Amino acid sequence: MGERGLEEQVGAHFGRVPTYTIVDMEIEDVQVIKNTTTHMGGTGYPPDLIHDAGADVMLCDSLGRKAIQMFQDKGIMVYVGATGKVSDAINMWEAGKLQAATSETACQQHAFQGEGHGEGEHHHCKG
Q1: What is the pLDDT of residues 2-39, one digit of tens each?
Q2: Who contacts 90 (Cβ-Cβ below 8 Å, separation ≥6)?
Q3: Which residue of 22, 35, 53, 74 lies most exposed, with the fewest beta carbons within 10 A?
Q4: pLDDT tens-digit profile of 45-78?
């Protein structure tokens, strides 16, 4: 949700978060990149941006079926159910507590709203 890296909160709506935290576990490097995709008035899609940053695993609270497919097409494994801080999400993933994203674990609300939620609309996606 912001620029605090591992201490930042995981956003509830994957495509509309202002930033993404990229963590290289091998060299313990943390980068925060701005969401410059079409969801935020820019170009491209989040899977492209995250792939270009070198990620091969993506952790999030939830996302829609189309986004899951786009990540799979890029060779990026997606896990849903991440909550709390980014560091909490990584710990949950390492402990096997996050679920692999599939069409069954996708946020069903996205299927009816073209992958995005209306402005000011709030709901909790469940996988």
Answers
A1: 999 999 999 988 889 999 999 999 988 999 999 999 98
A2: 6, 23, 25, 59
A3: 53
A4: 999 999 999 999 999 999 989 999 999 999 999 9
Handedness of CA 61, 68, 19, 6 (dihedral sign): positive
Which pair of structure tokens corresponds to residue 79? 């896990």
Could you tell me the pTM of the whole model?
0.82
Q: Cα(85)–Cα(10) distance, rounded to whole angstroms?
A: 6
Q: Is the pLDDT of residue 121 over 80?
A: no
- Within 24-77, residue ranges assigned H as helices are 46-52, 65-73
Extract the tokens encoding 116. 């995005």
CB-hemisphere CA count at 13 Å for 39? Answer: 21
DSSP E strands in the chain: the ranges are 19-24, 29-34, 57-60, 77-80, 99-100
φ and ψ of 72, to 5 deg: -60, -40
